TrEMBL record, chains A, B:
InterPro entries per the UniProt record, alphabetical: CoaB-like_sf, DNA/pantothenate-metab_flavo_C
EC numbers for this chain: 6.3.2.51
Enzyme class: ligase
Family named by the database record: Belongs to the PPC synthetase family.
Keyword Iron found: no
Organism, scientific name: Malassezia equina
Domain of life: Eukaryota
An individual GO BP term: coenzyme A biosynthetic process
Signal sequence residues: none
Protein name: Phosphopantothenate--cysteine ligase (ATP)
Ranges of residues in domain DNA/pantothenate metabolism flavoprotein C-terminal: 167-267
Amino acid sequence: MSRAWTAEAFYTQLEEPPTLAEYTQQARDFVARHVAEKRKVVLVTQSGGTTVPLEKNMVRFLDNFSAGTRGAASAEYFLEAGYAVIFMSRQHSQFPFTRWYSHTTNPLFDLLEEPAEGEETVQVSQAHVQGLLPILHAYHEAKRRGRLLTVPFVTVIEYLFLLRNMSEVMDPLGRHAMQYLAAAVSDFFVPADKLSEHKIQSDDQALTLQLEPVPKVLGSLVASWAPNAFVVSFKLETDEKLLIPKAERSLHKYGHQLVIGNLLQRRKFEVVLVEPHDHTWVRLPSTSAAPPHEIERDIVAAIAERHESWIASV
Amino acid sequence: MSRAWTAEAFYTQLEEPPTLAEYTQQARDFVARHVAEKRKVVLVTQSGGTTVPLEKNMVRFLDNFSAGTRGAASAEYFLEAGYAVIFMSRQHSQFPFTRWYSHTTNPLFDLLEEPAEGEETVQVSQAHVQGLLPILHAYHEAKRRGRLLTVPFVTVIEYLFLLRNMSEVMDPLGRHAMQYLAAAVSDFFVPADKLSEHKIQSDDQALTLQLEPVPKVLGSLVASWAPNAFVVSFKLETDEKLLIPKAERSLHKYGHQLVIGNLLQRRKFEVVLVEPHDHTWVRLPSTSAAPPHEIERDIVAAIAERHESWIASV
């Protein structure tokens, strides 16, 4: 029951997702273009959660909370900082740029004006043009210049296969590669051989679920898949006392460059950048009033600077 | 451990969601306007899934699959058929009309043209105006005429409290009320007193979860909350043999008007309308080629017709 999955066993025993080869090839081509341009490339894994199917037909699944703001916002600021971005994101979670006009909070439809009698144009109402223009421009620029590649996933199994292949194909970038692992990944999964074929029947009985721990792959990523990349992982905690100790333990164990620690309750206002011999808090001026800008802007600026020094240090 | 929750115990022992009173008042005002206009009103609960938090801070939760297309699409066709719609939907799931321009599959941003030098207007590119106009018009009409009220939820507990209050406030409509319960509701939940205060720690151990069955509230809805409404429930199965028998059992047990049965694999192409002495398949012409229209159009037409006869039959 409680066999602990190693990364190796996971990748050899589980079946590859059918779309893996296609996304891998797209990423390989994307990387090759940017190697030629000597551009830095960051893999942003999006914090949109990963699902754990409990049934083969996936009527029910275990999920983990995440609106996905951190990944989508960070991708925007990496593009602004001149990076090319591979955005590996949970399907239907937030997306760079379009996230500002979410269907539920600020639908673009509300900004579109129907044409006057006899006309045939639909335009954005004049009051909203100023707010929209820079976002729209940045979005179109990223597409026109081929700076943004999107790779979607749903389950934690898809996520783990993609993560391996994306980091491997980035190796030709050498130190110009960054892994920014913001995805909130499930710690548990149910292997295919234990999935129920049909929908679990509910006859007023309590349900007991047995979940197995997801293998820790950060060690393989740092040592084998992306030995030359600048690797940033995330720690989300709710208990403040555990935050820095757990981040330091993770750095020590895996040997990568940086852990971004955040507390669930204050993650929009402060994070701590934990490095091997140092830690630095990044804080917005106030947690009460409306913040002057998103904290992801400051996080990305701080990380990009460290990445630059690290490239120069060889 | 396996105490079975009755609807009564659930509503008296669990705490009301803080936003419940506000949404209830909005719905009461909405209904009053439509009673005055003698308009039919349908409550569409959206199939966007309900979450089951496993921790108080909700880092992890159990979820159930649903893109939410059925509810959002049905709401559009009910509006087209002259109904006013209370759309009770999972936050961030699909929304009537805007769903046609999803951020991931068909982003509106791709259709917007940046202004030429010296100009300050953003417009939809001419090639897409024809496709967009009828959808945009229907969306604006529903808003202008006050025909669409949106009520969001996330957890299964919020869903159950809202469902009770929404059906109760619709009672003044008499037979002009319809309940169209398309939400895919979790069958299990973890009561607040068993929720972990902090994030469940994962130390390479298997995780065992104990979940309790969600009370069946359809009986209370039919008998007490909405005794005059036309009530349509949904049955989603993966095993074809169980579909009609389970739908019939549900009708017999709760005494409502209609069950829409669908198989997970074929739900976009066929459903079966199960009534007390009859069942009728609704099928799109072909499951292979692109369907001529969405099946929800045919479902809503069939249901609206039955609702009309049922109103006339008193």
